[in-house]
Amino acid sequence: MAAFNTVVLKPHLLQYCICEGAYGILCLLSFALAGLDVIESTAISQLLKYLGAFLLIYLIYQFFYLSRMKYVVTDEQLIFLHGVFQHSTDYMELYRVVDYQQNRTLLQQLFRLKTITILSGDRNMNRLDIIGIREEENVVNEIRQRVEYNKRKKSIYEITNRF
């Protein structure tokens, strides 16, 4: 019987910059423009301040959401923990995993990060994107070993129509 160590993955904080960088720049610009004497209309200045405040609240929420996100790979399950005000836990049985993908956007390539997509036959969670993982971590191979082990353990064999 193979015993695997539990693996805990968290998105790298540079993923926050990738996802929310444009909103951060827009937030700074709105506060900067609201504070300049170039805008003579107080209504526009107030609107820019409200826009900046709204974006700042959004950015803080997204930061906490990403920092609380966790992926746990056990012997038999892939567990996704997420949420700020309402914390949720989603479970994916490893024997139901059918495919894997690795994607890297241009910004992820620059920051040496990647997104791993796990596709499953699970009704509740048929796709899981594991975002912001360091490029050098071989997560797909680790999950694949566990998937194959669980399929053998449960005597599950894949039948395909190949010509």
Helix content: 40-55%
Q: H/E element string?
A: EHHEEEEHEEH
Form type: elongated
Residues in β-strands, percent: 25-35%
Q: Quote the distance from N terminus to C terminus.
A: 35 Å
Average pLDDT, all residues: 92
As residue ranges, the low-confidence spans are: none
Largest pleated sheet: 4 strands, antiparallel
Strand arrangement across the biggest beta sheet: 1-2-3-4
Structural class: alpha+beta
Q: DSSP helix count?
A: 4
Rg, Cα atoms, Å: 21 Å
Count all strands and give the number. Answer: 7
Protein model, in words:
It contains four helices and seven strands. The protein has helices at residues 14-35, 42-68, 106-111, 139-153, and strands spanning 7-9, 70-73, 77-82, 88-93, 97-103, 113-120, 127-134. The strands form two sheets. It has a four-stranded antiparallel sheet with strand order 1-2-3-4. Strands 5-6-7 form a three-stranded antiparallel sheet. It is elongated, with a radius of gyration of 21 Å.
Which tags fit this structure?
163 residues, 3-stranded antiparallel β-sheet, 26% strand, 4-stranded antiparallel β-sheet, alpha+beta, elongated, 7 strands
